[in-house]
Design brief:
heterotrimer, A alpha/beta, B alpha+beta, C alpha+beta, B: alpha+beta, Arc Repressor Mutant, subunit A, Glutaredoxin, four-stranded mixed β-sheet, 7 helices, 11% strand, C: alpha+beta, Ubiquitin-like (UB roll), Alpha-Beta Plaits, 2 domains, five-stranded mixed β-sheet, three-stranded antiparallel β-sheet, 6 helices, 10 strands, 24% helix
Chain lengths: 555, 167, 239
């Protein structure tokens, strides 16, 4: 099914009410549409105005999709003054339809553009179609059908087999095989288990999970419920970052509706299966996206990671086996159960099956959400779908994986997007943020930007991350300010290696990646930032040993 | 704070804790609600929370100071937050932050600010499609034209951010 | 009692099931440097000095916080580990204000000992000279934050052995600091029993008895284990 186009097109206007469009004036537009409709009740009869979730091209918000038997037209950056035109344009053969459509033409977005055409919606299949605040609308779009079927027809093991067959891997960053994780939790000794959804999407440049929560929360709840059945859990938590108030509000509402309709609670769909899900709101700590820190935060403590093993699948929340997946992973589950694991596995590449949602932003013409099959070349995503740098200049690099990832240089853009390829380039998939950088972006500055982020977000438990990132940020200052020496370059690389190898958790281990990847692909920028010998300070300001190593300060 | 409002605050605090059954895992939720009541987490409220939840004082303070959205000092009347996430960063957020510092006469992330305004950074609001973004007293400003000085200044004016006093 | 066998630097050792890699290393006669670890307290794996290399996965594992498993093979002293340990100690020295010559713990300081053990004679990383303070509000003891390495032994001993939980860690990252109560002067915290266990276990001169001056502190890091064992085995003299 093509992106954003409903199967049975009734006459309706779908207004994006997700955060991106809201901040661009989406609420005012929706209000204006309703006012215009009420003022013109007769003419607008049979026309539905429906608030929906993300319509993908966030950079052109507020977005409105206009559906009719002749297909869907999408409009962007629509000011409220155009409300009447939108109504007229949506109406069947109205006398003003032609005029109104002409008036809206400058706002028209072409759904045949690669940005839309190349999308393959699975996780986002009803995102932008369904009203995120209505469980009845979600039911009408098939929500909870798979939960009902699974409870009636499948054993937990059959569910896990299907998920394993799909080849789905964790979408939170590390790409751990989802089926294997579910099996590990399910096969622990008898006793209580918990499912946890990691919705602490903290990577700067990532907003996929926020969009799912704001646009289609019932899909996540259904995915979690199926997972809970598959691993034998009767309790679940969604840990959402506090920076996403609208997502929290809609998720809470969705949970309330789900309880009222009996799709959560005791004896769901007349089965033996019971599930309660609670929301836990973070309070501004990136490290809580790390699973052991997240569990401590749910328990009301400082979010400081602990060494693994034991893994949460063995000993998690209050010591019980705990399944942790992120929003996108759980949200892929209903479609996998409906169409079958083989169907999902047929998309993507050998090691990275299925589709992945990316958040395109930075120096790129089309910013927003894209869901594409794994293995699509990075160039297709950034240049074809994203439309390249707005001023037409060349792309310099693409940053993936947030503060744990790296910068992929333009000459590597033909790399297919999958877990292993990105790792081999010194970056990583991460949660799906893709920030495009143009020629004017300095790589040592980018590296320092991420290192400062890590300094700020380090929990402070282990010394390589707590003190090492501070030293790395200072070393990077020297490059940015053109006062670095050759020895600083060695020191930078050596310390990066040490922090990566010895830090306690993924945050610290990955903190040097932005430096290492920019050193690998843009080393000349660091070398160019070395201080000229002629600018050297008098020799007494630093002691240089016979081996050329700058001596620090003896304790 | 007058006696009546102080005792009302204490009463509602007790209510908040009771609603969570005084379960120690609810500490973060409770702190969120205490901050909603007071605007920040005053020491006497933290002491009260610790007593009601039967938690060590240092544990409560340790948690409150770990999470950056909890404020341990009274907030300034007006607050501005500039997003320094990667997408905003690529689109000039660092220059924007500098401009705001100059305009408000404050240092970034100094909670005391200039007494009336404080400027803090946020790591990413997930509004990357609208970068660069700034939040002024809870209102999100998007796609700020960092390169077009005049236009930027007038948008900041419209958002109610004062210009520096002319000397 | 079931036993697991594993190899430490190529040597076969057998340890009771549930033993840590640190205990396994000791069984093989290998002494690993540690700072946050202390017998009798819950391991946290924070100082990273006891990291060992797994011969199978190549991963580095904190020996104190990793359970020995059947068939494991670890190396404790590779060239890489030696380099990392040295850098770790450099980072400890650079992040605080450690001036041995004036310190109460001079000569009986675990940080100093570790520096000698890993051969760290200077730091290649610039000293940060952080602004920290001294809390001398307690009648018997004092806390000099300049010398604190955030090992959290004091936090754990007070919570796990004394049961008072006077201490905790506040803030995060490089701003982390040990606090008493609501970040109050130690002397003002009613929960403190003045038992002195935190002073006994502090590996540096951060916590000390006021009566001690330069090089006069002699800690008793063995006490948590003695107390825990005595409790578990009910070895009290008057029972």
């Amino acid at each position: 099914m093509p992106v954003l186009q409903p199967e049975t097109p009734s006459r309706q206007l779908r207004c994006c009410g997700a955060s991106g469009c809201r901040s661009a004036g989406g609420e005012a537009l929706l209000a204006a549409l309703r006012t215009a409709r009420d003022a013109d009740a007769g003419a607008a009869a049979g026309l539905t105005i429906k608030p929906v979730g993300c319509l993908r091209l966030c950079g052109r918000g507020p977005l409105v999709a206009c559906d009719g038997p002749e297909g869907t037209r999408l409009y962007g950056a629509v000011p409220p003054e155009h409300a009447a035109d939108l109504l007229a344009a949506a109406r069947e053969d109205g006398p003003d339809a032609g005029v109104a459509r002409a008036a809206l033409e400058p706002h028209r977005l072409d759904l045949d553009e690669p940005f839309f055409r190349l999308q393959r919606p699975v996780v986002l299949e009803t995102c932008g179609q369904v009203d995120p605040e209505s469980i009845d609308d979600a039911f009408a779009h098939g929500a909870y059908d798979q939960l009902r079927r699974v409870l009636a027809e499948l054993t937990p093991k059959q569910v896990r087999d299907e998920v394993r067959r799909s080849g789905l891997r964790g979408r939170g960053g590390a790409g751990y095989p989802t089926g294997l994780k579910w099996d590990t939790v399910a096969l622990q000794p008898p006793g209580p288990r918990t499912v946890v959804c990691n919705a602490d999407e903290g990577d700067p440049g990532a907003f996929m999970d926020r969009s799912v929560l704001e646009s289609d929360p019932h899909r996540l709840i259904e995915g979690m419920a199926i997972a809970a059945y598959a691993v034998g859990a009767d309790h679940g938590y969604v840990y959402v970052r506090a920076e996403y108030p609208l997502a929290i509000e809609r998720l809470r509402l969705a949970l309330q509706q789900a309880r009222r309709k009996g799709v959560l609670g005791r004896g769901i769909f007349d089965s033996e299966f019971s599930l309660a899900i609670e929301v836990r709101v973070g309070a501004g700590a990136y490290v809580c996206g790390e699973e052991t820190a997240l569990l401590l935060s749910i328990q009301g403590q400082r979010g400081m990671p602990r060494p693994r093993p034991p893994y949460p699948a063995q000993s998690g929340l209050w010591g019980a086996p705990t399944l942790i997946n992120n929003v996108e992973t759980f949200s892929a589950v209903p479609a996998i159960l409906r169409e079958g694991g083989d169907w999902y596995a047929a998309m993507g590449t050998e090691g990275s099956r299925g589709t992945k949602v990316f958040a395109l932003s930075g120096a790129v013409r089309h910013t927003g959400l894209v869901e594409v099959p794994m293995g699509m070349p990075l160039r297709t995503v950034v240049e074809e779908m994203g439309g390249g740098v707005p001023d037409g200049s060349a792309v310099k690099a693409v940053q993936t994986g947030g503060p744990s990832g790296g910068c992929i240089p333009a000459e590597q853009l033909d790399t297919p997007v999958d877990y292993e390829s990105l790792l081999s380039l010194g970056s990583m998939m991460g949660s799906g943020g893709m920030v495009v950088m143009g020629e004017t972006t300095s790589m040592p500055v980018v590296a320092r930007h991420f290192m400062r982020f890590s300094v700020n977000e380090s929990c402070g438990k282990c010394v390589p991350c707590r003190a090492g990132t501070v030293q790395l940020a200072e070393l990077l200052d020297r490059f940015v300010e053109h006062r670095a020496e050759t020895a600083d370059l060695e020191r930078l690389e050596e310390l990066c290696g040490m922090v990566r190898a010895t830090s306690l958790c993924g945050l610290g281990q990955a903190a040097p990646n932005p430096v290492l990847s920019t050193l690998r692909w843009f080393r000349h920028e660091y070398e160019a930032a070395l201080r000229e010998p002629s600018h050297c300070e008098p020799p007494d300001s630093c002691t240089v040993g016979a081996d050329g190593e700058t001596r620090g300060y003896a304790p | 704070m007058s006696v009546t409002t102080a005792s009302a605050a204490a009463a509602s605090l007790a209510q908040v804790v009771r609603r969570h059954g005084a379960r120690s895992d609810a500490l973060i939720e409770v702190l969120h609600q205490v901050q909603e009541i007071h605007g920040y987490l005053p020491p006497e409220a933290l002491r009260e929370v610790a007593t009601l939840m039967r938690l060590p004082l240092s544990r409560v303070y340790g948690v409150a100071s770990f999470y950056h959205l909890f404020r341990l000092e009274p907030p300034t009347d007006h607050r501005c937050a500039v997003c320094l996430g990667t997408a905003c960063f690529v689109r000039g957020a660092a220059q924007l932050a500098q401009r705001l510092e100059t305009r408000l006469g404050v240092d970034l992330d100094d909670a005391a600010g200039n007494g009336t305004w404080a400027l803090q950074h946020v790591s990413c609001l997930g509004a990357c499609g609208q970068a660069p973004v700034v939040v002024v007293d809870g209102v999100l400003l998007t796609k700020l034209p960092v390169d077009r000085r005049e236009e930027l200044e007038s948008q900041l004016d419209a958002a109610g951010i004062p210009r520096p006093p002319t000397v | 009692m079931s036993v697991v066998t594993l190899r430490v630097n190529g040597q076969e050792v057998a340890v009771p099931a549930g033993a840590s890699l640190l205990e396994a290393a000791r069984a093989a006669g290998v002494e690993l440097p540690t700072l946050c670890h202390l017998e009798g307290l819950t391991p946290v794996g924070a100082c990273r000095l006891c990291l060992v290399a797994s011969e199978t996965g190549g991963r580095l594992l904190p020996a104190c916080a990793t359970e020995a498993a059947e068939g494991m093979a670890i190396r404790t002293d590779t060239e890489e580990l030696q380099r990392y340990r040295r850098m770790t100690v450099e980072l400890f020295f650079a992040e605080g204000n450690h001036v041995c010559a004036f310190c109460v713990a001079n000569g009986d300081c675990e940080l100093q000992d570790v520096a000698v053990a890993v051969g760290m004679d200077h730091s290649r990383f610039p000293y940060r000279y952080p602004h920290r303070h001294v809390d001398a509000s307690h009648p018997l003891f004092a806390l000099d934050h300049h010398r604190c390495i955030l090992c959290t032994r004091c936090v754990r001993v007070c919570d796990e052995i004394e049961g008072a939980h006077v201490w905790d860690v506040a803030q995060r990252g490089s701003e982390c600091t040990i606090i008493a109560g609501l970040d109050e002067p130690w002397g003002a915290v009613e929960a403190c029993t003045s038992c002195g266990k935190c002073v006994d276990v502090c590996p540096t001169g951060a916590l000390f008895r006021k009566e001690d001056t330069t090089a006069e502190k002699h800690p008793h890091a063995e006490r948590p284990e003695q107390l825990r064992r005595a409790r578990e085995q009910q070895q009290w003299r008057n029972q």
